[in-house]
Amino acid sequence: MKNSLFIQKAYINGEFVEGNSTFEVINPSTNSAIGTVPDLGVADCKNAIVEAHSAWQMWKERPMGERSAIVRRLFELTQAHKHELAEIMTLESGKPLKESLGEVEYGNAFVEWFAEEGKRAYGETIPSNNTMRIVTIKQAVGVVGAITPWNFPLAMISRKLAPALVAGCTMVLKPASQTPFTALALAKLADMAGVPKGVFSVITSKDSKGLGEELATNPLIRKITFTGSTEVGKTLMEQAASTIKRVSFELGGNAPFIVFDDADIDAAVRGAVAGKFRNAGQTCVSINRFYVQDSVYETFAAKLTEAVSNLKVADGFEEGSQVGPLINAKAVEKVQAHVEDAIQKGAKLQTGGQQLKGNFFAPTVLTEVADNALIQSQEIFGPICALFKFHSEEEAIQKANDTPFGLAAYFYSQNIHRCQRVGEALEAGMIGINTGLISNAAAPFGGIKQSGIGREGSRYGLDEYMEIKYLCFGNEA
What we know:
It contains 15 helices and 22 strands. With 477 residues, the chain is an alpha/beta fold.
């Protein structure tokens, strides 16, 4: 493969390194290997942590302006190499090339944002009720352990790495074993941007459990940030408690999409397709449950079915591809099981519903889905639209909130008063009102309930990597 950023080595302490063993990375579109990377172990992870801790002593003392300038150079280099990055991303994740290019732009927006926002990590002077002087400053948390998923192999890293770097933290990253090459390409760009040795390391490994435990329990790690399943997040949180680490987790979702009778139906259909089929439905904020008011149910279902049936399913490099493959055969089995369960419980199949070649699954619309279907309670992570019916606003809110998760929620209405009421009533960290796309570098991304803790993006995302220190000045000479 002729791509200067395609590197088949791990990255530790400023060097690309090999290991004693390797593992293959599979293209989910073709089920063929695209390359190998080192299968590193806990000992390698410990070494990277020690180097990161040593580098932190130097990095945190660098002026904020210098750190921000380096992150700005990373932004510029990423922009310059966006086509190479997108190519790697499509190879290892399967998503359409147009989507991969979009992810580079989206993920890099966080790098640009934090390169500027780092300069505004303000402390404050606080009025005292005595003669003392109270001042607060913000300082880097320390060494950060990061674990990222396969579905957004660049953006899930950049929105953690950029604020960590400008804050003065160092980072040891364990990317998903399905998509390590994008992370290694980003490491190459970081090196080119001038990120010093040890400040950023990338550990490739199939031992997710072992490395996760090391990152969560190693006393030199001061914070762990993780994007992935709620089940794994709970384990990491328990492990991190042993050393009282700072944590920020973006976990599972079960996003509702509500269509009220006063909605613009055509706009709602467009929002539904945008919010559901990005990366073949394999996103944490992907719509999981469609709740449609009974008076517009048939109209919305018909228009959505038509739009979904016209989506082009193809290899990510094929011109016009809109829906790529699922990540592997296990993902296909899960989606198929959800469809079969829904149909067994009375759902009507309007389009799709079957596996195509390999890991491809036909975009699907199910209507009349029962409230006890697995789709109602479990995250689908696939190209399935499951439509439920509701009668009143109160019922819609109750159904939408009937889940232990609370990452994202969406609804369509042209009534401003309803928009205010429902937006405040829905139990989720992010609410899309008359839009199916909510991610933005300037906005705080994160969930409530069992969908996570902490925020990424916005000025709140910078605070996640900084400690507040209080300086008390006495009045004695």
